[in-house]
Amino acid sequence: MSVVHKALQIRLPPLPSIKDVIRLYKLRALRELSQNFLLEPRLIDKIVRAAGNIQNNIVCEVGPGPGGITRSIIQQAPRKVILVEKDPRFLPTLELLGDACKDKVDIDIITGDILHTDVAHFIPADVKVGWNDPPPPVNLIGNLPFSVSTILMIRWLEAISRQEGVWSFGRARMTLTFQKEVAERMSAPILHKQRCRLSVMCQNWCNVKYKFDIPGSAFLPKPDVDVGVVTLTPLKQPVIKLPFKLIEKVVRQIFSMRQKYSIRGAQTLFPEDIREEMALKMYNIADLDPVTRPYQITNSEFGRLCEAYKAIITEHPDLENYDYRAPKKKVITENVDEVIM
């Protein structure tokens, strides 16, 4: 007979509801910070459950705001909660939570921008595991502001590729909210209407799972779009085993002309006078049909294109730093007659 172990839960002392907290502290969501408060406890608990068993784990929450998700995290009895909040207006509400569970869960409150905060400094060294081991007891959870979600995800993917920051402790898992369209892009397979650069980048380094939708009506203020919850678990080995910057450059340029033949975007990797020749050489090396559309290319095929690009810039090092977006250099010509005079 099997025995089912029920996860330990922490019961918080009576606290005002999140709605009451927002009213008591006269908090309002700031549009310039892309803030939207999730108030429905059932949906909040569903986000935290999507992270799996976090009992005794180190949990970093990005943008806790008034602390709705934080309460649900604490109730799951983690070892430590690290809160990174940019807006100092929420400090009193988060400190209230910290005081309420000070004898049960260790809480660090960091006032700062997650784009410029190295959370790794606050994670205990003893949770570190090897990269090929099962994921460490470390979770990132967050209701991310729409305005920074994509750039933050790209930065985290680069950190994963280097096994730095949070990922110096192993393959730490993420459970995050995104604008629904962004969540769909992250998980989109080939031929999907949302397949894009973000799809390839996320799926190259992570196992991406689109978990569920949250209606915009569940947030205050109500955003114009619904929200998608996504979990990401770093892969032991990326599909494309090349430097992050090289992969990002190739994928970005190819998707820059998403509806056209993929070779058209690849041509922008090279200077105008040789771009057709070099792009064709790249596709020949990769053994890929130049008229393939970007959203039809698998990650392994992108890998062949990246390897081909690497072979070309190794042969022609001067092409490596070419950026078609850089301003063109002006050629200054002198009037010969004036010079003679």
Automatic annotation (TrEMBL):
Top-level taxon of the source organism: Eukaryota
GO BP annotations of the record are: transcription initiation at mitochondrial promoter
Assigned GO CC terms: mitochondrial matrix
Which residues take part in binding S-adenosyl-L-methionine?
A: N36, L38, G63, E85, D113, N143
Please tell me whether the keyword GTP-binding is annotated for this protein: no
| Xref: SUPFAM superfamilies | S-adenosyl-L-methionine-dependent methyltransferases (SSF53335)
Query: What CDD domains does UniProt report for this protein, alphabetically?
Result: AdoMet_MTases
UniProt-listed InterPro entries: KsgA/Erm, rRNA_Ade_diMease-like_C, rRNA_Ade_methylase_Trfase_N, rRNA_adenine_dimethylase, SAM-dependent_MTases_sf
Give compartment(s). Answer: Mitochondrion
| SMART domains from the UniProt entry | rADc (SM00650)
One GO MF term on file is: rRNA (adenine-N6,N6-)-dimethyltransferase activity
| Domain Ribosomal RNA adenine methylase transferase N-terminal: start-end pairs | 43-236
Keywords of the record, alphabetical order, are: Methyltransferase, Mitochondrion, RNA-binding, rRNA processing, S-adenosyl-L-methionine, Transcription, Transcription regulation, Transferase, Transit peptide
Q: What is its EC number?
A: 2.1.1.-
**Which PANTHER family does the record cross-reference, listed alphabetically?**
DIMETHYLADENOSINE TRANSFERASE, DIMETHYLADENOSINE TRANSFERASE 1, MITOCHONDRIAL
The record's similarity note reads: Belongs to the class I-like SAM-binding methyltransferase superfamily. rRNA adenine N(6)-methyltransferase family.
Q: Which NCBIfam families match?
A: ksgA (TIGR00755)
Protein name from the UniProt record:
rRNA adenine N(6)-methyltransferase
Task: State the organism named in the record.
Answer: Papilio xuthus
